[in-house]
Design a protein that fits this description.
This protein is of the alpha/beta class and 223 residues long. It is built from seven helices and eleven strands. Strands 1, 4, 5, 6, 7, 8, 9, 10 and 11 form a nine-stranded mixed β-sheet that branches. Strands 2-3 form a two-stranded antiparallel sheet. Helix 5 runs parallel beside helix 7. The longest helix is centred in the middle third of the chain and has 8 residues.
Length: 223
């Protein structure tokens, strides 16, 4: 059975910082204008909705999308942990250590905090009050060499307002390490429920010279 763990993309359904352009479908041809087909241009921020950050996002020597093989976006050993968090309340190293036995054997870690409920009820707080990871938590996760992906049900791996004057230490802790790490941000982890995830598929748009891409996140689970 397959479960989608990503959000639809649209001008009204996507939550973005107010300073960013919303995703837009720009008509090129339309039947109602007497054309023979419908064709469109698509304009969107690379970090729109449920998306993957590549190492090149913060590491000038890091991998871009096309530096990964397509199989690098399939994960065979996935762990989903529940760590309830409110706005501005980072996930800590101590909380993650409670799951160390599982983290030590997975290639993808999904962190479900319940913070994504604010995406629907209070988008402004969802944007500004990102829980994120503490720096110590990020450094701890970066030490697991087999761990290739960290996914989360909040907009960014760190609170952007707090991280900006500090030069984004959480992003750097994860994306600067020698073995490439991917970050799945703004994921919808609620539908996963208590299912055991057998595989996770996160295929980005294969665009040259790009640091991030929206993905359709799909979990294959036990029926």
């Amino acid at each position: 059975m397959f479960i989608e763990l990503s959000y639809p993309i649209g001008p009204h359904s996507t939550v973005l910082d107010p300073g960013l352009k919303p995703p837009t479908v720009i008509p090129r041809s339309r039947f109602e204008d007497g054309k023979r087909n419908n064709t469109s241009y698509l304009e969107l921020f690379a970090h729109t909705g449920t998306h993957l950050d590549m190492p090149w996002h913060f590491n000038p020597r890091g991998n871009k999308i096309l530096d990964f093989e397509i199989g690098d976006f399939v994960f065979q050993s996935v762990v989903l942990v529940d760590i309830p968090k409110g706005p501005w309340e980072p996930v800590t190293e101590t909380e993650l250590r409670a799951f160390e036995d599982k983290i030590a054997h997975c290639d993808a870690l999904l962190i479900r905090t319940g913070n994504n409920e604010l995406r629907r009820t209070n988008p402004d707080v969802y944007i500004r009050g990102i829980p994120g990871l503490s720096v110590e938590a990020a450094q701890y996760l970066a030490s697991f060499d087999q761990l290739r992906l960290i996914g989360m049900d909040f907009m960014s791996v760190e609170n952007i307002e707090k991280a900006r004057p500090l030069n984004y230490p959480v992003h750097h802790a994860l994306l600067d390490r020698p073995r490439p790490m991917l970050l799945l941000e703004d994921a919808n982890l609620t539908p996963a429920g208590q299912h055991t995830i057998q595989r996770l598929y996160l295929f980005p748009l294969r665009v040259e010279d790009l640091e991030a891409s929206p993905v359709t996140a799909v979990a294959e689970v036990e029926y």
